[in-house]
Specification:
The complex is a heterodimer. Chain A is mainly alpha-helical. In chain A, 63% of the residues lie in helices and 8% in strands. Chain A contains 12 helices and 9 strands. In chain A, helix 2 runs antiparallel to helix 4, helix 4 (52-82) packs antiparallel against helix 5 (87-120) and helix 8 packs antiparallel against helix 9 (228-264). The longest helix of chain A is centred in the middle third of the chain and has 37 residues, at 228-264. Chain A is globular. Chain B is mainly alpha-helical. Chain B has 2 domains: 13-76, Arc Repressor Mutant, subunit A; 84-123. A 3-stranded antiparallel sheet of chain B has the order 2-4-3. Chain B is globular and about 50 Å long. Classes of the chains: A mainly alpha, B mainly alpha.
């Protein structure tokens, strides 16, 4: 244990457990976050959520996923105490295994939901919607919460200015690496690059986060066929909310990077436990907001209760009058392979809202969709392969 | 305005969009000069082929309800077409409707009453759009 505290593997283990717990919680509550018109990735009437069989299936999922998360936490602990040195590897696989567990419960339950839908003869209108004003605003970048990004950017500029100002006074030879006891073990002559590297990296992160924020603004939403007007109003509020959430995380990331700067410039050397505690706290601060937003706002904001304008109320009345389906012989369930992968050749959009889960989905019938999927897959795989090979020597 | 397309309907999708936009202009839900989403954006939203929306916009433009711009996309025309241009088409539709009405035993005065109710209904609008 003492060795774990000293070399930091205990902190990494702790971090892994915390991330696993938070991820597990999020994956467990997905059915309650999902749109009411979706049950295990299958389009159902909103009232079907209260159907006895549906309730039972959701309970099964909650119980199963909770149990799986607890098992994963326990297995992680067992693994750590058997092989503390491989804690980093643990932190890579422990949360990922949850996704496999999720599929183990989700896929059979989706099949049962499809059967239930057929048996109960649930009919949902298969429709497409566009709110012309919302549509024009979608992707309009002046609506982004710019202030978060501007403040983060200014912090980077400030850090560069500070670094250049302090540059003449810092020692000519800088410690660039410390061992696990925080004793210096590598040095390098100072250079302007040593001042610039962290602000530049955090500037890159700002751009990355801004990019994800823009993608959210472009993602096409799943509209509730039973109340499309409300859906659009909810999505407007949701976009604002996620925008601020991402902005907040961006600021946190920037602060995190800039906090390391005094260390790289040898102005202040924290103790190892200070460093690990800061990492733990900052990680939780970064993971918690998305979970909170997901749980409180629901998928695409479907749990939000925005105040509708008079015009929208009028519009909602008109729509609900015309919503009675005449004839339903097509459904969009078939466009979602396994309820996970959207494949629609007719649909030109490549970023769509997920059917099960709370992250963006792709249209696999579009070249752009496939390209993004391949890039993500390759990046993820390479991280796993590389780190696993790195740790292979331990076993 | 909210455009909703029913994929299960017998009415072709381009027609559904066309009808709704025309209705929205008449009711004042869409005001003259108001811009509409680009062809691409609208087809993404609804989840239909770009050509479908293109067809709708082309018809609306040819009939004079819509102006198309290279950069900004489409907008409701600021000056609507005059009566003369719609007479022939309207005549055809009316003859078709009255034929159906008579087959179903709807008398002329009832038919006229229905027509006047429908006219009032579709132009009642939130802020009107009298040109």
């Amino acid at each position: 244990m003492t060795s774990g505290l000293e070399d930091g593997s205990f902190y990494i283990f702790l971090l892994s457990e915390v991330i696993t717990l938070l991820t597990g919680t999020l994956l467990t509550v997905i059915p309650s976050i999902n749109r009411k018109g979706l049950l295990f990735g299958v389009r159902v009437p909103e009232a079907a959520q209260n159907d006895a069989s549906a309730v039972q299936m959701k309970r099964l999922y909650y119980a199963g996923m909770s149990l799986f998360t607890v098992l994963d936490l326990a297995a992680g602990a067992a693994f750590y105490f058997a092989k503390p040195a491989a804690a980093l590897l643990l932190s890579l696989y422990q949360p990922t295994i949850l996704l496999i567990g999720q599929m183990l419960f989700y896929l059979p339950l989706r099949k049962r939901t499809l059967a239930l839908k057929a048996r109960k003869d649930w009919k949902v209108r298969f429709s497409g919607f566009s709110e012309t004003r919302v549509s024009r605003e979608r992707g309009r970048l002046q609506n982004l919460p710019w202030s978060w990004y501007i403040v983060s950017f200014l912090l980077c500029v400030l850090a560069v200015a500070f670094g250049l100002y302090i540059y003449p006074t810092i020692p000519d030879i800088l410690v660039k690496h410390w061992d696990i006891h925080m004793t210096p073990d590598a040095w390098a002559p100072k250079s302007v690059a040593s001042v610039l590297v962290l602000p530049v990296v955090s500037f890159g992160m700002i751009l990355l986060m801004l990019g994800s924020n823009i993608l959210i603004y472009f993602t096409k939403l799943q509209v509730s066929p039973e109340n499309p007007v409300l859906s659009f109003a909810q999505h407007r509020q949701y976009r604002r909310l996620t925008g601020h959430m991402l902005g907040f995380i961006t600021l946190l990331i920037t602060i995190t990077f800039l906090l390391i700067m005094p260390m790289t410039l040898n102005l202040y050397i924290p103790t190892f436990s200070q460093m690990m505690t800061a990492t733990l706290v900052l990680t939780v601060l970064m993971i918690a907001p998305p979970i909170l937003v997901a749980v409180r706002a629901g998928q695409g904001g479907s749990k939000l209760k925005p105040v509708l304008t008079e015009r929208e109320l009028e519009e909602a009345k008109n729509v609900s009058g015309s919503i009675t389906p005449v004839r339903i012989d097509r459904t969009d369930d078939s466009l979602w392979k396994l309820g996970l992968f959207y494949y629609n050749k007719e649909d030109p959009s490549f970023l769509v809202e997920d059917r099960f889960g709370n992250n963006g989905g792709l249209n696999y019938a579009r070249p752009a969709g496939i390209a993004v999927a391949v890039v993500i897959l390759l990046l993820t795989l390479s991280v796993y392969v590389f780190s696993t090979l790195l740790f292979a020597g331990l076993f | 305005m909210l455009i909703s397309v029913d994929f299960g309907s017998e009415t072709p999708i381009y027609m559904q969009i066309y009808e709704q936009i025309v209705m929205a202009i008449a009711s004042g839900d869409l005001v003259p000069g108001e811009s509409l989403p680009s062809v691409r954006r609208l087809s993404e939203d609804i989840g239909v082929n770009i050509h479908t929306v293109n067809k709708t916009y082309a018809i609306l433009r040819d009939e004079g309800y819509l102006k198309m711009f290279l950069r900004t996309g489409a907008a409701v025309a600021t000056k609507m077409p005059d009566k003369e241009s719609i007479y022939p088409a309207m005549n055809d539709k009316l003859r078709q409707l009255s034929a159906q009405a008579s087959i179903h035993g709807i008398a002329e005065d009832e038919f006229l009453k229905m027509a006047s109710d429908a006219y009032a209904e579709s132009t009642k609008g939130m802020n009107g759009n009298k040109l």
